[in-house]
């Protein structure tokens, strides 16, 4: 695993952006696109802040200077770089989950951990993740285990390396 540690200022920025994302949507954790609806608003904001922290960790890992997480671009733009969709889970052995709203042309990167320490578990093109073998039988999405991901260290030198910049 590739470990990235955020500093205090990055943690604060992640929290501010996480809150702003929820606020911009007038979001509640019970919207139709969520499967875990049984959390409080504060937990929902914290999950968004962790997801932003994961995006920051990916940008830092790839040396993308001046990265600024977005607030209301939703699925219209990549989370990081040209085509990186960052997926965060608090579970160390968690899977990368691809939803209907994820862009086909993106590369998904799985990040685990909790602020300030994140681990970049691996990557897979969204188009490859949408295979029947990964389809979740109880949810209409795709779950890719960490053992099925490509090593994060191989992304830049792969044919998908241009997704970063």
Describe the structure.
- The chain has 165 residues and is α+β, with helices and mostly antiparallel strands.
- Helix content is 25%, strand content 20%.
- The protein contains 3 helices and 6 strands, in the order βααββββαβ.
- The chain has a 4-stranded mixed β-sheet. Strands 3-6 form a two-stranded antiparallel sheet.
- It is globular and about 40 Å long.
Overall 3D form: globular
Q: Mean pLDDT across all residues, rounded?
A: 93
- Low-confidence stretches at least 5 residues in length (pLDDT < 50)? none
N- and C-termini, Cα separation: 22 Å
Write out the strand line-up for the largest beta sheet, numbering strands in chain order. Answer: 1-5-4-2
- Portion in beta strands: 15-25%
| Helix fraction bin | 25-40%
Radius of gyration computed on alpha carbons: 15 Å
Give the beta-strand count.
6
The helix/strand class is alpha+beta
> How would you spell out the order of helices and strands?
EHHEEEEHE
Number of helices: 3
Q: Which oligomeric form is depicted?
A: single chain
């Amino acid at each position: 695993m590739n470990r990235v540690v955020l500093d205090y200022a990055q943690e604060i920025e992640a929290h501010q952006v996480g809150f702003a994302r929820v606020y911009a949507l007038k979001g509640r954790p019970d919207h139709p696109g969520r499967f875990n609806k049984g959390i409080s608003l504060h937990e929902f904001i914290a999950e968004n802040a962790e997801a932003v922290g994961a995006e920051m960790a990916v940008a830092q890992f790839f040396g993308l200077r001046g990265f600024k997480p977005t607030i209301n671009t939703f699925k219209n733009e990549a989370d990081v770089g040209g085509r990186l969709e960052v997926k965060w889970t608090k579970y160390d052995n968690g899977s990368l989950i691809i939803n209907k709203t994820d862009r086909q042309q993106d590369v998904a990167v799985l990040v685990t951990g909790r602020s300030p320490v994140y681990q970049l578990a691996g990557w897979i093109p969204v188009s490859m993740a949408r295979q029947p073998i990964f389809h979740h039988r109880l949810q209409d999405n795709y779950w890719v285990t960490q053992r099925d991901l490509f090593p994060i260290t191989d992304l830049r030198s792969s044919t998908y390396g241009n997704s970063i910049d």
